[in-house]
Amino acid sequence: MKAFVLERYGKMRALRLADVPQPQLREDEVLVEVHAASVNQLDSKIRGGEFKRILPYRLPLILGHDVAGVVVKVGARVQQFQPGDEVYARADDFRIGSFAEFIPVREASLALKPKGLTMEEAASIPLVGLTAWQALVDTAQLKKGQKVFIQAGSGGVGTFAIQLAKHLGATVATTTSQANSALVKHLGADVVIDYQTQDFEAVLRDYDVVLNSQDGKTLEKSLRVLRSGGKLISISGPPDPEFGREIAAPGFVKLVLWLLSFGIRRKAQGRGVDYSFLFMRANGSQLQEITHLLETGAIRPVIDKVFPFDATNEAMAYVEAGRARGKVVVKLK
């Protein structure tokens, strides 16, 4: 099969289009013929080697976390899916590889593709949808009437998280450029801050939840817009000791994570705020919940651009430029 392969870590390093063997199927997996795959910042971070300690992949590696396609084969223990099913998923860590013609996906991580969505639309959802769900529903337990600040509202996670937060009944604030202000308002944002001309710290007060996706300076400022007892959830780091326990990290890695997050954890504690790092996990049952929201129209996909498969490197570069409105997708079929 054809696949885009990472041969060595390096920022901006081009993936090589190669003919590789079709992956071996495990008993609890289905083999999906890839029709579309979306590109995420996580792909770039893995390519650049930023997660080598946390996710020690063996190279060469096929990148790509999101997939939509058709089941062509099922493992011996698979019961919920059969050949011909249209499905979508965020592939599990260490089984990623959707920048290819075929990918095996664990049954527990898979869901039927939402009715009414194209393959490209479906492929745009899993990673950002599960990230928003695990942040706002699982970790924050966001409730009607609460206030949430979602950074980078016009990005992939932001466009989904705004819609999910509004569905949950929250008041939503976000940051974006003036050019994308109308988009985030249309998605449901109540307070829109132009990050180029405004300081969110001067505008927001007593928020219940912050979903941080930016740098360390923004993370620290976010503490000051939260009420006592509020929750600061970061998807951009630093990882905390709890994350080290979740991934059963070696002792020296746990120590590194403790040191990396010590400063922000201490400052959060001093303000009576809960800090946590979220590295989302593949989850088919949560994806089924998201499917319902997509099929009822409560949430809609936001796609900036669709690239052909042979332009996967160009799609990666477009995402890395940081100006995409919503998601960027690679189309195979």
UniProtKB/TrEMBL annotation:
<protein>
    <submittedName>
        <fullName>NADP-dependent oxidoreductase</fullName>
    </submittedName>
</protein>
<dbReference type="InterPro" id="IPR011032">
    <property type="entry name" value="GroES-like_sf"/>
</dbReference>
<dbReference type="InterPro" id="IPR036291">
    <property type="entry name" value="NAD(P)-bd_dom_sf"/>
</dbReference>
<feature type="domain" description="Enoyl reductase (ER)">
    <location>
        <begin position="10"/>
        <end position="330"/>
    </location>
</feature>
<dbReference type="Pfam" id="PF13602">
    <property type="entry name" value="ADH_zinc_N_2"/>
</dbReference>
<dbReference type="InterPro" id="IPR050700">
    <property type="entry name" value="YIM1/Zinc_Alcohol_DH_Fams"/>
</dbReference>
<dbReference type="InterPro" id="IPR013154">
    <property type="entry name" value="ADH-like_N"/>
</dbReference>
<dbReference type="Pfam" id="PF08240">
    <property type="entry name" value="ADH_N"/>
</dbReference>
<dbReference type="InterPro" id="IPR020843">
    <property type="entry name" value="ER"/>
</dbReference>
